[in-house]
């Protein structure tokens, strides 16, 4: 199921994976696909770890909060970029959402061990650069850059 | 220490529920939490994860972090779809009737340590 790049000597790579809101049965599959691609590209283990954490948290945010969205991965020789875009409620207060422990997830989702208010902080710790844009009532876009060195 | 050594340790009371193919996996350390984001950020490759979460998303976390395996403590039985996904992904899952605190204590007594404890202390 891993999509191994056709030309392994060419480190440029593009991938887009749809993510469906509230689809907990498939949660984690998009992040797993991204991890397998990065492993096939032979990136350093620390880069793969940071990208896997970021992809997982971004995917879970879409599943927990949004109606639908997608994860897009772009890899160049210098950096990998993950873009998570969704159609959803948006984020009212981004500064608040960045605080560890702050969450708007409902109780039944917290009981599953999600919604601990660590998703965006985990992404920020894993990324070299995180850009969040959000419109309330429309959706959210995260751009996560991790340098490859 | 390999997972199969732990399976044979009577004091842990482990039942193998999924991922028999991974029993020779080496356990490098241990981690325990029921918050999945905590595990994602703190657990390390090769860790054995002790939790009371039993839904199938624990398999995705184990795959992404390349954990050695999962112990579901406290007599909680995982859902069938958790076990079929674990078998498909080669993730070893045990259950035990011991409470999480007790199973972690007994793993520690067998020599398993947190992979990241020194780093965590250093962060104050």
Notes on the protein architecture:
The complex is a heterodimer of chains A (149) and B (124). Chain A is of the alpha+beta class. Helices cover 33% and strands 28% of the residues of chain A. Chain A has a five-stranded antiparallel beta sheet with strand order 1-2-3-5-4, covered by helices on one side. Chain B has 124 residues and is an alpha/beta fold. Chain B is globular and about 40 Å long. Chain B has a five-stranded mixed beta sheet. Chain B has six helices and five strands. Chain B has helices spanning 3-7, 36-42, 57-65, 80-89, 100-109, 117-122; strands spanning 15-18, 29-32, 47-51, 69-72, 93-95. Chain B has one domain (3-115): HprK N-terminal domain-like (Udp-n-acetylmuramoylalanyl-d-glutamate--2,6- Diaminopimelate Ligase, Chain: A, domain 1, 3-Layer(aba) Sandwich), CATH 3.40.1390.20. The model of chain B has no long low-confidence stretch (mean pLDDT 95). In chain B, helix 3 runs parallel beside helix 4 (80-89).
